[in-house]
Specification:
Blueprint lengths: L1 H36 L2 E10 L4 E11 L9 H11 L2 H23 L2 E5 L2 H4 L4 H12 L6 E6 L1 H4 L3 H15 L3 E7 L6 H6 L4 E4 L11 H16 L3 E4 L5 H10 L3 E2 L8 E2 H9 L17
Parallel strand pairs: 2-3, 3-4, 4-5, 5-6, 6-7, 7-8
Antiparallel strand pairs: 1-2, 1-8, 1-9
The protein binds ligand C2E and magnesium ion (3 copies).
One magnesium ion (MG) binds next to loops.
Length: 293
C-alpha cells in the first residue's frame, strides 16, 4: 500500500510539474508580447537615511500589468524572464527608463538610483557598454547609480563569474557603485566581501526582528552592520516595516533603511511629489494613489 501511495504521489507530482511548465510557457509568451506592447512600468521605492528619515536614494522595481488583468509580481515573472533570456532585454529597458527618470531627482535633490541586475545580464559581453550608454543618454552621472546583484553571481568560480567581475570592475572604475542584494540569504563566504568589487550590503528583510523580544535576529543584524562597517561598506536594511525596526537599526548604526514603514514602491510621478515634500520628518505616501498598497 505504501508503495502504491508513493507511486500515486509521483504521478501527481509529474502532473503538477507539467501544469507548471505549461503555465510557465504561457507566461513567457505573454511576457514576450508585453515587452513590445509597453505593459511594463518602473516603480520607485525610497531608501532613507536613518539619521533623519529622509530619502537619499530610490530602488527601481519593475511592474508588469497585462491589460485587463491584475499586476503580476516580479517574483513570478523575473525567474521566467531569466530562464528565457528575456531578462537581458527587459533589464536593459528598466535600466534606461530608470536612469531617464532619476536624472531630474538627482539634479534637484541629489537622490541616487539603485537598479537590480540579473545574473544573465552580467554574462552579456555588452553589459558594460549598455550600462554606460544608459548613463550617457540620460545624463545621470555614474556616481549616482548603484547596481544590485545577488551573492550567487560572483561566488561561483568559472567563466561566467569572471565575465560578471569584469563588468562590475569596469563600471566601478567609471564611478558606478555595486550592492549585494538580499545579503545573508545566499552562499555567504565572508572572504568574498573582502575580495570583490562591492560598496553596499543590503540586509535581507528576513533578518528584521518580529518584535522587541526577538534578540537573536537583532544579534544577526548587529553582526552584519559591524562587519560591513569594518570593511568600509554602506549598509541598507530591507523590509523596515515598523518604527521599532527603524529604532533598532538606528541604534545598531545601520545607515539606511527601506521598507513599508517609510514608503512603498510608487510610480515616478508620485516619487517626484514625495521628494518635493521634504518638510515632514517621515514620508507618508498617499495610500489612495499607492498601486502597491
Ligand atoms: P528586491 O530587489 O530585494 O526588492 C525588494 C522587494 O521587497 C520589492 O519587491 C519590494 O516591493 C519589497 N519590499 C519593500 N519594502 C518591503 C517591506 O517593508 N516588507 C516587505 N514584505 N516587502 C518589501 P518586488 O517589487 O515585488 O520585487 C521582488 C523582487 O523582484 C526584487 O527583490 C528583485 O529581486 C526582483 N526585481 C524587481 N524588479 C527587478 C528588475 O528590474 N530587474 C531584476 N533583475 N529583478 C527585479
Ligand atoms: Mg533589490
Ligand atoms: Mg532585496
Ligand atoms: Mg529579492
Amino acid at each position: 500500500a505504501a508503495k502504491a501511495a508513493g507511486k500515486d504521489q509521483a504521478t501527481l507530482y509529474d502532473v503538477a510539474l507539467r501544469v507548471e511548465q505549461a503555465e510557465r510557457m504561457r507566461l513567457l509568451e505573454r511576457l514576450r508580447e508585453s515587452v513590445d506592447a509597453g505593459e511594463f512600468a518602473v516603480h520607485y521605492q525610497p531608501i532613507v537615511s536613518l539619521d533623519d528619515d529622509r530619502p537619499v536614494a530610490v530602488e527601481a522595481l519593475v511592474r508588469w500589468t497585462p491589460p485587463g488583468r491584475p499586476p503580476i509580481s516580479p517574483d513570478r515573472f523575473i525567474p521566467a524572464a531569466e530562464d528565457s533570456g528575456l531578462i537581458v532585454v527587459l533589464g536593459e529597458w528598466v535600466l534606461r527608463q530608470a536612469c531617464a527618470d532619476a536624472v531630474a531627482w538627482h539634479r534637484r535633490w541629489g537622490t541616487t538610483l539603485t537598479v537590480n541586475v540579473s545574473p544573465r545580464q552580467l554574462v552579456d559581453p555588452q553589459f558594460t557598454t549598455k550600462a554606460l550608454a544608459a548613463l550617457r543618454d540620460s545624463g545621470l552621472p555614474p556616481q549616482a547609480l548603484t547596481l544590485e546583484i545577488t551573492e550567487g553571481v560572483l561566488v561561483k568560480a568559472g567563466p561566467e563569474a569572471h565575465q560578471a567581475l569584469l563588468h562590475l570592475s569596469a563600471l566601478r572604475s567609471e564611478g558606478v557603485r555595486v550592492a549585494i542584494d538580499d545579503f545573508g540569504t545566499g552562499y555567504s563566504s565572508l572572504a568574498y566581501l573582502r575580495d570583490l568589487p562591492i560598496d553596499v550590503l543590503k540586509i535581507d528583510r528576513s533578518f528584521m526582528p518580529s518584535d522587541n523580544t526577538d534578540t537573536q535576529q537583532a544579534a544577526l543584524v548587529r553582526a552584519i552592520v559591524d562587519l560591513a562597517a569594518g570593511l568600509g561598506l554602506t549598509t541598507v536594511a530591507e523590509g523596515v516595516e515598523t518604527a521599532d525596526h527603524a529604532d533598532l537599526l538606528r541604534d545598531l548604526g545601520c545607515e539606511r533603511g527601506q521598507g513599508y514603514h517609510f514608503a512603498r514602491p510608487i510610480p515616478a510621478a508620485h516619487l517626484t511629489a514625495l521628494l518635493a515634500d521634504t518638510d515632514t520628518d517621515t514620508i507618508h505616501p498617499d495610500p489612495a494613489t499607492d498601486q502597491d498598497a
